[in-house]
């Protein structure tokens, strides 16, 4: 890696200030950034670690009932602390990567990176969560903006993610055999006012809501309601691990499995 | 159960203590005073003309000692190829130059162009970034058949075309084979791909070159499976250093699987640069470099035809294979698709007529060479797949069809040059049916069906030729080396023994199993025997470890040397006990005189050898140290039968391996626990090849699976618990231990088992799928089900 300065602020304000420096970059758990640095694919002047800010850590329940996850909370902590209040989210976190990844990687890092195959975007979009930053609140539907792109401004920090807890929900992931990222992952959540379905891994535009399935499940929340359904293969990712047709097919399969798992 | 420290006991691996506690001594652990570091600038295009390499800016970067380019190696020999294949027409293969650093052209992504030596790794890398390259990119040749088109770009301008050789085996039998096909009652044809693999040893390659100005001696520390071979190839052919001025050390090596047999450019570079700079020079590959610089494996495209008579007897086999050599000839590359592949096409079966055609092709990809099994997995895969297909076409039981055609009388002379000394293929198949509970398959299938899963059973046999090999034979076949093995057994004064073997252990557990053999022969505790390997300064000239040859050839050399030691010790014992040598018996470390109560201990005899106060000096020399070289009379022929049950998820195409059983005949067994481990590891790699691993290039020669994000290695949850048995033992008839070797069997036998099982599952599920090319990824299986 190239040489860089390193700072580990204790407050969000200090972090925001540090990120104001030219070519400064936020460091969450480093699960994507550190390998990129090692390959000399990034050359930040300063890495601003977000891991020492107490208010960005942990899972809590807000007054309105939503589950709030601090932006720098590692996956393993979400898996443990959200298990009671939002088991579908805990289960998703528990199945990201391997123990080393789960102990380092953070929800804020995952969302800010918006890898088209990562799991958290499906949960955030599938619940209509709110991404709280140091400057504003961003609705999930406004947050994701295509592969590796989000609504975040330069230097903006994900402080917290607020998940409205669904009546029932589940995430079903089909793993890419090598990376074990989601080849296709579907998050299904049922609320009093409707059903949300978000799909990761499949589309060239990154995570997306599958409106047709939401409508069908809104009418009848059962796997059978999606029988034979799959989105169009157009715009799906085609690579070594699967054609667009295969991914489109898997979206149907994984969504049905998520519905079945949601019970 | 044999007692500990004897042949047949499952002693725990003594070397694992240091491996598991972080106290091993790997090449990267070696750091020499004043060491500098090299970073290689590698081509990022697959094919290009190197118009200019401007290193002037790099040379002024901080810490840089020197920047080397191809021009520095213009007068230095290229990397040699150790095997010359003669083609169908009696002509030698086309053999291009293989420069240490690229000259005039780059020929694959990863081809080294320049090397920066600096005080630190980071400085070397920084400087490499400012080297200015002018590369005129040329169209890349990736597909083998396209590479043979008349107007295809040439990988090597100086060659006639991209065809390394067109090999026919046995050429004189071709007419008879064609006639047998004319007369056949049934012919089954199968086209298949044996997928290219990246070896992915856990330890990436490392080289440290050192030069002693006082003595003029060079030393290379390297991650090699055969340090003596590297010393010979690099010293004699590349750098011009005679063996007595060059030492090669391969300390603990973290896995090789073939990829660390070969002599690589980085080894020659570090040795050369250490002398040029009078500084030790170290290189440690990154994982990314390993993907584009370690020789890769397999990559065959084959059409196989099997002819049967009206009674389903095999009458002929005919194959046509395109074998990818990559951009250059790696050390033993030409031998893999020929002599290690064509000679195995008879398999376990009596097929009177066999003809094998192999076209070896240059492409703009990383060189391909031996990888665990080397040629034999490719032979086994196509043969066992085509037999399975034939059984399905004929509506006969695949096991019965195999049994009907088994070789049952030994020795058996195949029509493809090799002669099997022993074997009992029905016995291993019987054992397989037992340990695999094949009779219970239908019940398990019904259970899977209830869960909505398609269950299939795959069964096949394999045979391999290992213990490579009789030197006079391989010499006739084109090898430019002998393939004996060596050992020195040095008995110390107080009775402990140091064995220096020319074999090399990089995961095989030689330090344990070899010690068991010597301890057993003398009747002493194995803790009294130490096995040393990997240093040309100590061990006699040896050929190293690959091809499952260590116990069969290296072990035999050690037995011969130990026999010489015992013979001399017997003379000393006879003298000490004033008895006739013919009456001396050795048991449990005690020499006794038959019919008396006289005895002397092993330690008394060894002490006498080195403190020869009471010693037959007029008859024998003091000391107790013997060396033996062993050249095998034949290959050894391990064989076995494997069974696999898979479940296929009909919705996703995902395959899971539910059961795997392996019944192997390895002849006599030294350490059954180590043999179990070797079979487990081999099957694990076979599962990797069959389901997961895919070294794929795009049409521009860019590696699509150049990291673990896209190259899928098998992990613990990809493999089942194995049922492994090696109680069927037909000892090898021509080596002193009766051993055959076990290192590659699992990787050879298992890929067809898995593919057979998946095809069976799909067929039972109503999908008329005849074949799927490896790896059987979920997307490929799903696509096959769509028809």
Verbal overview:
Chain A is of the alpha+beta class. Among the domains of chain A are: 1-50, Uridine Diphospho-n-acetylenolpyruvylglucosamine Reductase, domain 2; 168-262, 2-Layer Sandwich (Enolase-like, domain 1). Chain A is built from ten helices and twelve strands. A five-stranded antiparallel sheet of chain A has the order 4-5-8-6-7. In chain A, helix 3 runs antiparallel to helix 4 (87-94). Chain A is globular and about 55 Å long. With 787 residues, chain B is of the alpha+beta class. Chain B folds into three domains: 15-23 and 484-630, Aldehyde oxidase/xanthine dehydrogenase, molybdopterin binding domain (Aldehyde Oxidoreductase, domain 4, 2-Layer Sandwich), CATH 3.30.365; 31-139 and 205-284, Aldehyde Oxidoreductase, domain 3; 300-405 and 418-469 and 634-786, Aldehyde oxidase/xanthine dehydrogenase, molybdopterin binding domain (Aldehyde Oxidoreductase, domain 4, 2-Layer Sandwich). Helix content of chain B is 28%, strand content 22%. In chain B, the strands form seven sheets. In chain B, strands 3-5-1-12-9-10-11 form a seven-stranded mixed sheet, with helices on both faces. In chain B, strands 7-15-14-13-8 form a five-stranded mixed sheet, sandwiched between helices. A four-stranded mixed sheet of chain B has the order 18-26-27-28, sandwiched between helices. In chain B, helix 17 links the parallel strand 27 (655-665) and strand 28 (722-725). In chain B, helix 9 (376-394) packs parallel to helix 18 (745-764), helix 15 (550-576) crosses helix 16 and helix 17 (672-692) crosses helix 18. Chains A and B meet through helix 10 of A and helix 19 of B.
């Amino acid at each position: 890696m190239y040489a860089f300065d390193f700072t580990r602020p204790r407050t969000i304000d200090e972090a925001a200030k540090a990120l104001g420096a030219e070519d400064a970059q936020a460091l969450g758990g480093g699960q994507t950034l550190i390998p990129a640095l090692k390959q000399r694919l990034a050359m930040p002047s300063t890495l601003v670690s977000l891991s020492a800010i107490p208010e960005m850590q942990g899972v809590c329940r807000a007054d309105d009932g939503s589950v709030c996850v601090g932006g720098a909370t590692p996956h393993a902590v979400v898996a443990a602390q959200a298990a009671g209040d939002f088991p579908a989210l805990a289960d998703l976190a528990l199945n990201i990567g391997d123990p080393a990844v789960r102990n380092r990687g953070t929800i804020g890092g995952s969302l800010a990176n918006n890898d088209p195959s990562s799991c958290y975007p499906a949960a955030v979009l599938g619940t209509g969560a709110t991404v709280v930053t140091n400057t504003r609140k961003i609705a999930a539907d406004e947050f994701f903006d295509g592969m590796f792109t989000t609504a975040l401004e330069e230097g903006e920090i994900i402080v917290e993610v607020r998940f409205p807890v669904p009546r029932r929900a589940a995430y079903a992931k089909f793993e890419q055999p090598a990376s074990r990222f989601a080849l296709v992952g579907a998050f299904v959540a049922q609320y009093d006012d409707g059903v949300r379905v978000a799909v990761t891994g499949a589309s060239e535009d990154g995570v997306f809501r599958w409106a047709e399935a939401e409508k069908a499940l809104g009418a009848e929340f059962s796997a059978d309601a999606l029988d034979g359904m799959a989105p169009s293969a157009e715009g799906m990712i085609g690579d070594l691990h699967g054609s667009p047709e295969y991914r489109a097919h898997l979206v149907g399969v994984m969504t049905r499995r998520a519905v079945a798992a949601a019970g | 159960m044999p007692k500990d420290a004897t042949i047949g006991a499952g002693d725990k691996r003594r070397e694992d203590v240091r491996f598991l506690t972080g106290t091993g001594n790997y090449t990267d652990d070696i750091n020499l005073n004043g060491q500098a570091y090299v970073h290689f600038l590698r081509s990022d295009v697959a094919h290009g003309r190197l118009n200019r390499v401007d290193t002037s800016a790099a040379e002024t970067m901080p810490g840089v000692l020197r920047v080397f380019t191809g021009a520095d190696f213009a007068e230095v020999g290229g990397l040699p190829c150790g095997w010359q294949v003669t083609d169908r027409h009696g002509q030698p293969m086309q053999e291009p130059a293989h420069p240490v650093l690229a000259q005039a052209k780059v020929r694959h992504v990863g081809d080294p162009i320049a090397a920066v030596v600096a005080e630190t790794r980071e400085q070397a890398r920084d400087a490499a970034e400012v080297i200015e390259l002018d590369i005129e990119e040329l169209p890349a040749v990736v597909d083998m058949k396209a590479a043979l088109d008349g107007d295809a770009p040439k990988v090597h301008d100086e060659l006639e075309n991209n065809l390394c050789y067109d090999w026919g085996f046995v050429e004189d039998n071709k007419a008879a084979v064609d006639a047998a096909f004319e007369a056949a009652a049934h012919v089954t044809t199968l086209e298949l791909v044996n997928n290219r693999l990246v070896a992915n040893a856990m330890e990436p390659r490392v080289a440290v070159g050192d030069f002693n100005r006082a003595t003029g001696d060079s030393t290379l520390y390297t991650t090699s499976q055969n340090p003596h071979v590297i010393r010979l190839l690099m010293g004699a052919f590349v750098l011009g250093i005679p063996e007595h001025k060059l030492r090669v050390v391969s300390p603990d090596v973290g896995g090789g699987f073939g990829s660390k047999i070969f002599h690589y450019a980085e080894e020659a570079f570090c040795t050369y640069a250490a002398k040029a700079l009078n500084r030790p020079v170290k290189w440690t590959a990154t994982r990314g470099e390993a993907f584009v610089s370690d020789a890769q494996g397999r990559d065959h495209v084959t059409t196989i035809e099997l002819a049967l008579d009206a009674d389903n007897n095999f009458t002929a086999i005919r194959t046509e294979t395109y074998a990818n050599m990559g951009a250059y000839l790696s050390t033993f590359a030409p031998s893999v698709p020929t002599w290690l592949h064509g000679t195995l096409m008879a398999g376990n079966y009596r097929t009177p007529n066999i003809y094998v055609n192999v076209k070896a092709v240059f492409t703009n990809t990383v060189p391909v060479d031996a990888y665990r099994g080397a040629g034999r997995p490719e032979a086994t895969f196509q043969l066992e797949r085509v037999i399975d297909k034939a059984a399905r076409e004929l509506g006969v039981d695949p096991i019965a069809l195999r049994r009907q055609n088994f070789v049952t009388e030994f020795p058996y002379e195949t029509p493809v040059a090799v002669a099997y000394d022993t074997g009992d293929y029905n016995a291993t198949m019987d054992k397989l049916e037992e340990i695999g509970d094949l009779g219970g398959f239908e019940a398990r299938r019904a259970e899977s069906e209830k869960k909505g899963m398609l269950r299939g059973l795959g069964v096949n046999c394999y045979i391999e030729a290992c213990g490579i090999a009789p030197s006079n034979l391989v010499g006739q076949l084109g090898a430019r080396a002998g393939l004996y093995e060596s050992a020195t057994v040095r008995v110390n004064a107080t009775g402990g023994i140091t064995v220096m073997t020319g074999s090399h252990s990089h995961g095989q557990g030689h330090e344990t199993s070899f010690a068991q053999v010597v301890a057993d022969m003398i009747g002493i505790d194995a803790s009294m025997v130490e096995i040393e390997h990997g240093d040309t300064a100590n061990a006699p000239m040896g050929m190293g470890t690959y091809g499952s040859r260590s116990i069969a050839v290296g072990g035999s050399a050690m037995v011969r040397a130990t026999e010489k030691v015992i013979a001399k010790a017997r003379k000393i014992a006879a003298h000490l006990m004033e008895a006739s040598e013919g009456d001396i018996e050795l048991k449990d470390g005690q020499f006794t005189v038959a019919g008396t109560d006289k005895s002397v201990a092993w330690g008394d005899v060894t002490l006498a050898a080195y403190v020869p106060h009471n010693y037959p000096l007029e008859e024998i020399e003091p000391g107790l140290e013997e060396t033996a070289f062993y050249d095998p009379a034949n290959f050894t022929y391990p064989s076995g039968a494997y069974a696999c049950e898979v479940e296929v998820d009909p919705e996703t195409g995902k395959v899971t391996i539910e059961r795997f059983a392996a019944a192997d005949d390895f002849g006599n067994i030294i350490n059954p626990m180590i043999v179990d481990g070797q079979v487990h590891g081999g099957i694990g790699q076979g599962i990797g090849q069959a389901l997961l691993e895919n070294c794929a290039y795009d049409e521009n020669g860019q590696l699509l699976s150049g990291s673990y994000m896209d190259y899928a290695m098998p992990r613990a949850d990809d493999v089942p618990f194995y049922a492994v048995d090696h109680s069927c033992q037909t000892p090898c008839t021509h080596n002193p231990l009766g051993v055959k070797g076990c290192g590659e069997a699992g990787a050879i036998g298992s890929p067809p088992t898995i593919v057979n099982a998946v095809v069976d599952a799909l067929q039972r599920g109503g999908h008329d799928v005849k074949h799927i090319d490896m790896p059987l990824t979920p997307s490929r299986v799903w696509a096959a089900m769509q028809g």
